[in-house]
Amino acid sequence: MTEPSGLIGSAQRALRVLDIVGSAGDGITAKAVARRAGYNLSTTYHLLNTLVHEGYLIRLGHGRGFGLGYKVGSLYQRLCAELDVGQELQDELHHLHQRAEAAAYYTVFRETDIVVAAVADSPAFPRATPLDFGFHEAAHATAFGKVLLASLPRRDRREYLAGAGMPRLTSRTTVRATDLDTELEHVSRAGMALEIEEFQPELACLSAPVLDSAGRVTGAVAFSVPSTDFATRRWHLERAARTGAARFAHLLAKTPSLITGL
Question: Phi and psi for 26 in degrees, rounded to 5?
């Protein structure tokens, strides 16, 4: 893919270093960063020192190298606020995850994007990679994406899909707009969406809409499980998704500011 003109190479390199340090866990040496980024060691030190100075990285003691700085946390908190996800909603999603025994997701509209605003999982029931906080792709192939797409007027939906595309991710992915329209009509009537190995092989997801007081869809609660478990767990997950979506609607109604801008 050709990069657009006008990009600042030094900023790209700094962001690449920040991403590598964040992905490494709490502690990575400058030599390891340089190796992963493909930069020389001198350039890497300059980038690391700049990010430390600005508060986005810190130096760790006992020779452990570098870790994320505390400014990253404040950026995350601000983004959560932009996505209208407070601690109460995050706690509720964690409870849903525990009750359903499945990775749980809360997804919202952000302007024209459909974005994962919160995830709750555990080692026993891990999230599906790359369905993490901030994920905003493949709405046509995910259960939560289908819930939100189904709520859009057809013209708005077509405009969204024209920009986002409908790539074939697996042999089961729906890639024709007319076929997706038919499915989304069913999603709208049923108040429930599911996908089995459309987004990823061996993965199944199920999602229910979160409604505001006027009955408009403002978000979606979803669960993911291995596709081999889905048939035996579907009805349990569906009940949990409907209950969770209703609970989220109640929490949002209690705090009207949470749905501002959705």
Answer: -85, 80
